[in-house]
Amino acid sequence: MLILLILGLYSCSDDEAEYISINRELDVNIPSNFPQIQYDLSANPPTEKGFELGKKLFYDGRLSSNGFISCGFCHEQRFAFTHHGHQFSHGIDDLEGTRNAPAVQNMAFQKEFAWDGATSHLDLFPIIPITNEVEMGETVSNVVSKLREDDEYQKLFTEAFDEGEVNNEYFFKALSQFMVMMVSSNSTYDKYVRGEEGGEFTETEEYGYELFQQKCASCHTSDLFTDDAFRNNGLPPYPGINDIGRAEVTGSTADNYKFKVPSLRNVAITAPYMHDGRFGSLASVLNFYDTGVQDSETLDPILKQNNRLGIDLSEEEKQALIAFLNTLTDETFLNDERFAEY
Ligand code: HEC
Ligand code: HEC
């Protein structure tokens, strides 16, 4: 081992730059059709080793108190990193939460995280699931102690970060590096808007896209399909759970029942839908917008226009909208081996 290392050093000695750059910086994919990136890459530039470490952490059950619940347990790649088939995510001891796990994708482009925007810094987000007693039920300091005792983690932290010790800061930075690299931007829709090969729409998809721009894009804005705002889209409060959403964070009743407008990327495969996963299909979501919207003090004014609640949608329009939403599925991302557990 030592001999190999010396040989390695020796062979690079006339090209020092190459030796220093052994932990290569990675290129973050910034798609031309996306809004501006929000994550400060200069404060935590993703590197090969940092990404590798972040990925190992994302899939490691030791981040939870019982050793089994990893981030990947609730965020599965095949379903755009949502918790497939679960209305509410369950974590340790099968305890159930009250919210549906959103997709983890394009996080670098997002301003605020969680349905109520509990934090605006991606690096700090993992504290929430780790310390939540129904998710991972652990403390960050316990997690970091466990990692410190592990030789492989020690090695990975040393390789990934300059000073190299296993600490909270690098733990969070590594997880962010993994998530920052998770960019989904290769759906048929993306190819369509960028004029690339494979980006042809059928007539129905084209019609659905027009309808979407007229009826949905005021909230599901830009090629991320969110305006980053918190809004009340008229869901009646869920029986037995009084989740007040954004008001939980701001303490203002003006924010009651407002939730983050979700990105609709990969939406065809991320059922169930809404912050509480109450709808099992896109058809039920559209039926809701058509006939289920409930009035309240904080209902978004956009859903109270033309003397009617909600959004008028004929059966034909619903079909076309669903066809359009299907074009947002990005097989490249869903099958990208860089993000896969195995
Ligand atoms: C028990 C299931 C569960 C586990 C384990 C879990 N999450 Fe989540 N995740 C959720 C749920 C539910 C939400 C929505 C939380 C909310 O809105 O309050 C969420 C939200 C997120 C978001 C915000 C997405 C957005 O669009 O705002 C990110 C990022 C995320 N999780 C990353 C992680 C990471 C990293 C880990 C591991 C440290 C992790 N999650 C562990 C269920 C889980
Ligand atoms: C007034 C703003 C607004 C308009 C207009 C709007 N939405 Fe939404 N949409 C939201 C909000 C806010 C949520 C999240 C609500 C929640 O979970 O409480 C949401 C959630 C969704 C979801 C669930 C996504 C998920 O990951 O769970 C889908 C699908 C959806 N909207 C599609 C549409 C379509 C299609 C249209 C047009 C017919 C539309 N929306 C119009 C604000 C809006």
UniProtKB/TrEMBL annotation:
Keywords associated with the record: Heme, Iron, Metal-binding, Oxidoreductase, Periplasm, Peroxidase, Signal
Positions of the Cytochrome c domain: 203-329
Cofactor entry: heme
Compartments where found: Periplasm
Protein modification: Binds 2 heme groups per subunit.
Keyword Oxidoreductase part of the UniProt annotation: yes
InterPro entries the UniProt entry points to: Cyt_c-like_dom (IPR009056), Cyt_c-like_dom_sf (IPR036909), Cytochrome_c_Peroxidase/MauG (IPR051395), Di-haem_cyt_c_peroxidsae (IPR004852), MauG/Cytc_peroxidase (IPR026259)
PROSITE patterns according to UniProt: CYTC
Cell membrane found in the keyword field: no
Main location: periplasm
Gene Ontology MF term list: cytochrome-c peroxidase activity; electron transfer activity; heme binding; metal ion binding
Cofactor note: Binds 2 heme groups.
GO CC field: periplasmic space
Residues that coordinate or bind heme c 2: 216, 219-220
Source organism superkingdom: Bacteria
Residues the record lists as binding heme c 1: 71, 74-75
Listed PANTHER family: BLL6722 PROTEIN, CYTOCHROME C PEROXIDASE-RELATED
Protein name: Cytochrome-c peroxidase
Organism: Zunongwangia profunda (strain DSM 18752 / CCTCC AB 206139 / SM-A87)
